[in-house]
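Work through this:
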Amino acid sequence: MGRFLVMLGLVLVVVGLLWPYLARLGLGRLPGDIVIEREGVRLYVPIVTSLLISAVLSLLLWLFGR
């Protein structure tokens, strides 16, 4: 469990450092992501982005777990 948490922390640090570059690729603004804008309120629900990130992380963890 400790090793998993350390790896998760490292992945979060790397993603945090790469976030400005990932934003330029359009990650976070994919078709299927829900954006509701009202007076003074903006609600953003990144459904498709979350599914894509989950699939990529699952594939990576499966490959490294072998």
